[in-house]
Specification:
By secondary structure, the chain is α/β, with parallel strands linked by helices. It has 9 helices and 14 strands. A 6-stranded mixed β-sheet has the order 1-6-2-7-14-8. The protein has a 5-stranded mixed β-sheet with strand order 11-10-12-9-13, sandwiched between helices.
């Protein structure tokens, strides 16, 4: 999961696309913000369609609420300011629920929960976290993962990137010694051709102060009506089996967590 704990003042909102199949003529209309650079949770294909676990969950929730939903893509650093500025009504983008962020937005109940992990090149001599001392670690800026490295890996040099794609490129080209991110993101990547350079070193213990209690949907402060509609929809798709159907499309384990 990603979270931003150092929020920038401006948002950059990009291309728009309808959630095909989620629209209902008699429902509410909502705009959903996401940073579409985080596979397998959210990404855009060559045809401009928003895909991934989060996007399928969003479609299922919109269908459950009988809502007409539109998605917009936003830079990660500006995604909370964009929500506050009413550029969209909610954020569905693997955003972890943490005390710091909860001062800025309201969250639904979690819709998944996974731990962070470290990946290293396959030929790395590092065998455990202690071996990272003096090494350079890449992470996406303004995320739980960069904050985790700052707190728990103080003897490393932390190199920050605007997107996950950029740290992946640098570890592939030998410019960093390791990277930190969500275990699902890294596991999916190292199994792909693009991630053939690397392997998972280890999952990391969850720090609830940093990592939170799972990924939730963010809404503007005080929007209790929407938050409760979403909570009801999350519970409904878990009960109906729709959640598991989506989960099994992407993962071979329980992504919801405990």
């Amino acid at each position: 999961m990603r979270i931003s704990t150092r929020i920038l003042a401006a948002a950059s909102v990009a291309a728009m696309s309808l959630f095909a199949g989620a629209a209902m003529a008699d429902g509410e209309k909502y705009v959903i913000g996401t940073d579409s650079t985080y596979p397998p949770f959210e990404y855009v294909d060559a045809g401009g369609q928003f895909l991934g676990f989060d996007m399928d969950i969003a479609r299922a929730l919109c269908a459950e609420m009988k809502a007409d939903c539109t998605i917009v893509s936003s830079d990660w650093d500006g995604i909370i300011p964009a929500l506050q500025a009413k550029k969209f009504d909610m954020i569905i983008s693997s955003m972890s629920i943490t005390p710091e962020r909860s001062k800025l937005v309201d969250f639904t109940n979690k819709y998944y929960n996974t731990p962070p992990a470290i990946a290293v090149p396959k030929d790395s001599t590092v065998t455990d976290v202690a071996g990272l001392k003096g090494k350079t670690i890449g992470a996406q800026t303004s995320t739980t993962h960069s904050n985790y490295a700052e707190k728990h890996l103080p003897d490393t040099e932390l190199k920050l990137y605007p997107t996950a794609d950029e740290y992946k490129l640098d570890i592939t080209n030998g410019r960093v010694d390791a990277v930190i991110d969500d275990i699902v993101v890294l596991s999916q990547w190292v199994k792909s051709d693009a991630g053939a350079c690397c392997k998972i070193l280890t999952p990391l213990p969850v720090d609830k102060e940093i990592n939170g209690v799972g990924a939730g949907i963010a809404v503007r402060k005080g929007d209790d009506a929407l938050r409760e509609k979403l909570n009801t929809a999350i519970a409904a798709i878990r009960t109906s089996g729709e959640y598991k159907k989506i989960q099994d499309k992407y993962f071979d384990f329980n992504v919801y967590g405990e």
